[in-house]
What does this fold into?
Amino acid sequence: MSSTRTVTVASSQGLHARPAKLFVEAAQASGAQVTIAKGEKSVNAASILGVLSLGVEKNDQVVLTAEGGNEEQTLESLEQFLTTDHDEAS
Amino acid sequence: MPELSGIGVGRGIAAGPVARMSAPPPAPADEASALSADAETQRVQVAVAEVAAELEARGRTAGGMARDVLEAQAMMAQDPNLYDAVATRLKAGKTGEYAVHEAFAEFRATLEALGGYLGERASDLSDVSQRVIASLRGLPAPGIPDPGHPFILVAEDLAPADTALLNLDQVLALVTIQGGPTSHTAILAREKSITAIVGVAEAESLLEGQQVIVDAGAGAVIADPTQEQLDEAEARRAARAAEAVAPVTPGALADGTAVPLLANLGSAKSSAKAVALGAEGVGLFRTEFLFLSADEAPSVEEQREAYQSVLEAFPGQKVVVRALDAGADKPLSFLNDAPEENPALGLRGLRALMANEQILTDQLTALAQAQENTDADVWVMAPMVSTVEEAEAFTALAKEHGLQTAGVMVEVPSIALMADELLTRTDFASIGTNDLTQYTMAADRLLGSVASLQDPWHPAVLRLIREVGAAGIASKKPVGVCGEAAADPLLAVVLVGLGVNTLSMSPAALADVRAELKLHTLEEARSIAAAALAAATAAQAREAAQTAVQKS
It folds into this structure.
């Protein structure tokens, strides 16, 4: 049993830098086994190196899969995270 | 008394004990472990946890952007994928050190292959790897030392990641073995007013804990100083500290000739600091910050607001705004997305703006509106101008939009050589010495291997500046300098001697330049400039100017 969701990334830096770190933290804290996939490549969402290596840019579509724990709630909060622009002006 | 020489940054002086930055540890060898795989796993787990905790603690201390970088590094240390890669190697009987080294190297290669931002993260990963290996070996982490008391930092050179974390209460001065006047370390030191000497080849011989005096003005490191020398250094340090808090006066030479000292600003945020440090206006307001993080050009209204917030900080004073300076090296997809083999020689600066005139006219419109709403004296200038026609076209366009004072940057040798023709067609010239040096010496300013050529003291560069200065005097049009050169106090005197009227620099450099200008009359500045111009090499020009100062 697992749940899946397709999300379009809104952060203008994609999943680099600060947004990548925050995303991985959220995935780690969810208690579920989460994977994130872009195209053919799927990685453990709790791995910052895995997430960085996807090279996710703004407006890319990614597929989130959660297994274990409260899957729907996990996907809901991660989707919300990805569809928000986290970049503060610097 | 051994005295080591190098290139001083600023006029600071400091004395204290040396602390050396440890060199990165040698890579571990591929040898069979004497321990069981379980025992090695345990060692690695302890080391990783220790390094992650250390990075997080440093992040909390550093705050801001550095905190995010360090916390991300802590996550990398504990990454589950990486851990699997390490575990595979431990099961095969490798040592913890070698397993960590190889697993990190594998991920590093993956990130490097992706390039761009991720390629840059590769060096973060190397740093983590070296920390874990040092911890496994029971050695202190490589990087900035922390002896527990203020110290003089002696390093081969500093990486940007090291400098972000420099604790300025502890680091009395910097001495680097490598590096030139425009190296990362020198720029940082100038920006933060840290006493520094770069390119001190003999600093290799300085020992941990050895007492030294770092005299940036003289470009000298004095090892094992006498009490007399220490007292003199302390007196000079105290005098300089007193000068820094004394009320700031407008920039002027000893004979009263005014040399307005202006600030280089990259955003509205730093304007308050510039005013506090005595900036008499802004000599270079870079507008790139508005564009670099955007997928499309910001609206006229957004731009007007941003410009206005800077102009409001300088009522009645001059603010020179530079039109968007972007190109293939600071790529903006909406401006130019054609790949170029030589971006520095490509469609950049005014060339890119002329090819996308809407972006330029929006910028000029926004600036004219901001000018209407404030009391600042707004000047506008074009970046990367190579011909008189370009200067004419830009000047005319700016005036059409209601901007009264329009000029150009002199960064390309062609326009420096044409300065007399240029200044009859535009209102002012501002010399960007970093790019002017890069183009004169044909040396990429971002490339370490040719960094020694990127020296604005080179007589070839000084001769070009002389052309512009002379054209300014003949046409009675203002000529400013807004590159790193203006922040070098002695070179600032030379520039004034060559006919430059205003100097613009990072605000932190204002105090040193102001103090140096006060020591010389215009006549002396001219003879110091003449001495530098007569030299054959950059080093000789610097030396000739120093000798001329002692005589004046």
Notes: Residues 22 and 81 of chain A are 9 Å apart (CA to CA). Chain A has one domain: 3-82.
